[in-house]
Amino acid sequence: MLTMVQTNTNLLEFPVDLSTEMVTPEADIELFFPFDVTLHRVDAVDYATLEHGLTQRLQAMNSLLADLYTEQRIIKAGVLPKSILEQMPKFYQTGKGITPPKNIYVHLASFDVIRGRDNQFYVQRDNINTPSGAAFPASAGYAGTYSDAPVLTAHSATNICDYDTLVRDAMDAVNTDGIKVVLSNPLCNPLFFEHAYLADRTRSELAFPEHLEVYENTVYYRFVSGPRVKVGSVLCTSCDDLVNAAGSDDLSAHTAEALLDAYRAGNVAIMNAPGCSIAEAPAIFHRMPDIIRFYTGQEPVLANVPSYRGDSTVDLESMLSRLSRLVLKEKLPDGSIRVVFGRDLDADELSTWRLMLTQRPERYTAQEVGDFVSFDTLDTANRIVPRKADFRVYAGQGKRTRIWNSGL
């Protein structure tokens, strides 16, 4: 087996690293992306189950968004309470009455999955923000393919180096007859290298807000020299960020608002669609089994990690009595989610959480701490050590739904 140092050397060829800005904003330091070289195999039969379940889940999420922004059949049927939309009015109003290109709301998504001791897969979280760290396993896949080619060939491993194809296909499928653009910001942006990587691999232009112009609800990219070119699809890190910027005093607010106007006019595809963040809300996650049944008429292939809703009297009583043994999640006003392990809270903090839950129960959900399997990993001293790990699986929707054969 190759050492950690030998394999990680291959990653120097790829423009992806980490930034301490995520942890220490005042530090101007970039960190090398650490890569565990231990191979973790998922058998084809097991992965087929995972692929089927996540395809079912992603398609149900898209059906949910299409319904919520139009007829709201699921609310009329009593499967979802209307209060979910009322809790996030800004994101809801952004997408109301708008049909995105090809009727696709969620172009790219990821799912945090664990494998229980019963050998079954369980979904721990749905992620709508893009690209959700995908460039890290994508670049690691290339490095691993170089380092472990004989092993991968011997085990008939599937191609794990095609995430860029998945993204490119999704962007092309909804393109409104223009170039592809990955929208980023080079200043204090820990995701910049991920954006640069994806722009390069998907044959897209890496654009900053000042590169984009909107004229008569049509988006154009202006090159440093030469004419401006029409933009057909824009990949954003977070549709939430775009919506927030449009209503702020930020320098990019004008660009964000103009982009949203062009999107409303049907002249550009924004990935993921503005307003789709409600699909990853904890209250939606809790009800995903019912949502899948409603839109597909099928039983869910993959179960959720057991979870609880604060707006359910029965669930709330269980949450209050077992705070120290649960993973607690609070939906903040800006749409983000605060996650806290109850076991890490002291007595005073637990009392504060009980009070918050009692006063605003609809803002809180909780999950059981998953009892999932350990994986052998290789540490920096070349020692094999068992560690708990979840698996982030990436998916895309374009002309068809695809689940990537790798993950983070």
Describe the protein.
Helix 1 crosses helix 6 (135-147), helix 2 packs across helix 13 (288-296) and helix 10 packs across helix 11 (253-264). Strands 5, 6, 7, 8, 9 and 10 form a 6-stranded mixed β-sheet that branches. This protein has a 5-stranded mixed β-sheet with strand order 11-4-3-18-19, sandwiched between helices. Strands 12-15-13-14 form a 4-stranded antiparallel β-sheet. The protein is globular, with a radius of gyration of 22 Å. With 408 residues, it is an alpha+beta fold. Helices cover 35% and strands 23% of the residues. It has helices spanning 4-10, 44-68, 73-76, 83-86, 89-95, 135-147, 149-154, 163-174, 192-201, 239-246, 253-264, 282-286, 288-296, 313-321, 347-359; strands at residues 17-19, 30-32, 108-115, 121-127, 179-183, 205-207, 212-215, 218-222, 228-235, 269-271, 303-304, 307-309, 326-331, 337-341, 364-368, 374-378, 384-388, 391-397, 401-407. A hairpin with a 5-residue loop joins strand 13 (326-331) and strand 14. The chain contains 15 helices and 19 strands. It has 2 domains: 4-305 and 370-407, no CATH class; 309-369, Dna Ligase, domain 1 (2-Layer Sandwich), CATH 3.30.1490.270. The longest helix is centred in the N-terminal third of the chain and has 25 residues, at 44-68.
